[in-house]
Design brief:
Layout lengths: L2 E5 L6 E6 L4 E13 L24 E2 L5 E6 L4 E8 L2 E7 L6 E7 L10 E8 L7 E5 L5 E5 L19 E3 L2 E5 L4 E6 L3 E4 L5 E9 L24 E10 L4 H13 L14 H4 L2 E7 L5 E9 L12 E9 L6 H4 L34
Antiparallel strand pairs: 1-2, 2-3, 3-4, 3-9, 5-6, 6-7, 7-8, 8-17, 9-16, 10-11, 10-13, 12-15, 13-14, 14-17, 15-16, 18-19, 19-20
């Protein structure tokens, strides 16, 4: 209905994504690779470990050059199952009405019998002319532009061309040119980058054989229950859109992915919010990719920020609004008895915030 996805019939890899609603397509190649982890040497003792990502080469190794595939088509879902190796597989999925491509990957146990620690990535390659720029979110909120081998406040001498260009990706990463934007949403925080123009990558698993001497005092080599190593499963959602309208899709879907509601069961005669959950998160969808988010929890009368004569439900409101909205129109199920503007942490009133002042080397 929204997308058509094409695969190479000989290698089994993703080859192209077509946006049917807007009538354009983008060649997209996706594969899994692994960076060979640095073990340190006499000249540089820094090894890749739990706290340090430091591959010993810039070019990663493909897990496989071909994937065995199996296609499943029903009225409810279309799936292509890819098997890259005994420890790496993926299911690509489209459902009716779904405007994105879902990639559910399973990686592990990572083999280390060759004595090499490995850091596994999923990489997407396109012909987009990105000029060394890519974009990642900041803790699920503002999206920041990243430039390869560049820092905005000082002249960078890049000594780590891979690790020095990795950034935290909490909910999404994307690349774009003037006409097309490719966005990948994550279901957990991962490291990500665009090491090559037109590409983006996300690290999905690591297994290392050396300690990086940063305090853990052991290698990142968890054996798991069977002693063979950990298996990790996760999801990436891939969206193809124009740069002007891409945020209308990736903003709400990123929130849905990382703040999906919890199903909580508790004993009792019937539903009771205080009994079922001490805290929950609700979102109210707004036009234009805007959003209002609410945290609701029980606040006792003794709490200094409660402002209540007796215990009751307190709510913290936040979000991104460009047009005036009144809280009464958003929360028709509640009776608002008081409203107080708080600091971002929700622990003190905004008027009580005291900003720290200090002298810097420049005197400002």
């Amino acid at each position: 209905q929204h997308l058509r996805v094409l695969f190479d019939p000989f290698t089994g890899h993703l080859r192209e994504i077509q946006n049917l609603a807007k009538g354009f397509s983008l060649p997209v190649f996706q594969n899994f690779y692994w960076y060979n982890a640095s073990v340190g040497d006499a000249l540089c003792s820094q090894a890749s470990g739990a706290y340090i990502f430091r591959p010993d080469t810039c070019a990663p190794f493909p897990v496989a050059k071909r994937a065995a595939t199996r296609l499943i088509k029903t009225a409810l879902v279309q799936e292509l199952h890819q098997n890259f190796s005994s420890w790496c597989s993926q299911v690509l999925r489209l459902r009716p009405g779904q405007p994105y491509l879902e990639l559910e990957w399973t990686v592990g146990p990572i083999p280390v019998s060759d004595g090499l620690g490995k850091e596994v990535i999923s990489r997407f390659e396109t012909p987009l002319r990105t000029a060394g720029r890519f974009y990642t979110d900041s803790n699920g909120r503002q999206v920041l532009e990243r430039r390869r081998d560049y820092r905005p406040t000082w002249n960078l001498t890049q000594t780590e061309p891979v690790a020095g260009n990795y950034y935290p990706v909490n909910t999404r990463i994307f690349i774009k040119d003037e006409k097309v934007q490719l966005t990948v949403l994550t279901d957990r925080s991962q490291g990500g980058s665009s090491i090559l123009d037109g590409s983006l990558e996300l690290m999905v698993h690591r297994r290392l054989l050396r300690d990086d001497n940063r305090g853990l005092e052991e290698a990142l080599d968890e054996p798991g229950e069977d002693g063979q190593g950990l298996v990790v499963r996760g999801r990436h959602l891939v969206l193809l859109d124009t740069p002007e309208t891409a945020a209308d899709q990736h903003r709400p879907r990123a929130q849905e992915m990382v703040t999906s509601p919890y199903v909580v069961l508790a004993p009792g005669p019937g539903p009771h919010l205080r009994q079922v959950s001490r805290e929950g998160v609700w979102g109210s969808a707004m036009p234009g990719g805007e959003g209002v988010f609410l945290t609701l929890g029980w606040v006792s009368a003794s709490s200094p920020q409660a402002g209540l004569s007796s215990g009751g439900f307190g709510m913290a409101l936040g979000g991104s609004l460009t047009a005036p909205h009144h809280p009464q129109t958003l929360f028709s199920a509640f009776t608002i008895t008081s409203l107080r503007e708080m600091a971002l942490g929700g622990d003190i009133p905004l008027h009580s915030v005291s900003r720290l002042l200090w002298n810097t080397a420049t005197g400002t």
